[in-house]
Amino acid sequence: ARHIDAKATQFVAELPDGSDIAYPNVTLLPLHPHNGALQIWLELGLPGALITAALLLALGFGIAALPLPTPQRAAATAAFTATLCLILLSFGLWQNWWQASFWLLLILFGLASQPTRSRDETDAHPGPPDR
After folding, report:
1. For residue 57, which of 17, 29, 85, 131 sits 20 to 30 Å off, Cα-Cα?
2. CA 72 → CA 25, 61, 126, distances in Å?
3. Is residue 44 part of a domain?
4. What's this model's pTM, rounded to 2 decimal places?
């Protein structure tokens, strides 16, 4: 597990000289709730929750409509479901390494789902003729 020093988050509450930061009419959240749905609700409110729900539904239906063979579509659905489970149970949503892992998963899945030519197709079209 990662170790977070108590002084790592002091900048939220005080300036380097030890004086408090004054944010009128603003209540700061202490770190993150380790629950993606709750974090979206707390930080973005009802509009953010509705937009996120619409985005997740669109992604789910988009995966179901992919023109892929059944095993690849099942793998995409499993990756999407596993990612949602992790979002609901762990880290804060806005951490850059966490979002980078989502993008990396998406890129790798896109590369893995590219159509491949079978050996028969390759033999039928060997390439340009030799001169």
Report:
1. 29
2. 50, 15, 28
3. yes
4. 0.60
Query: Position 14: which residue type?
Result: E
Coil, strand or helix: which one is 108?
Answer: helix
How many domains does the chain contain in total?
A: 1
Query: Does residue 21 lie in a domain region?
Result: no
Q: Could you tell me which residues are beta bridge partners of residue 14?
A: 20
Per-residue model confidence as pLDDT tens digits over 19-63: 666 555 666 666 667 888 988 988 889 999 999 999 999 999 988
The whole-number average pLDDT for the span 118-128 is 61
> Quick one: residue 45, left, alpha or beta (phi over 0 = left, psi -120 to 50 = alpha)?
left
* Distance, CA of 44 to CA of 54 (rounded, Å): 14
Residue 7 one-letter amino acid: K
Establish if 109 belongs to a structural domain. yes
Question: Taken in order 59, 64, 69, 74, is the CA torsion positive or negative?
Answer: positive
Give the residue numbers spanning the domain of 107: 33-114
Q: Would 86 be classed as within a structural domain?
A: yes
Number of Cβ within a 10 Å radius of residue 36? 22
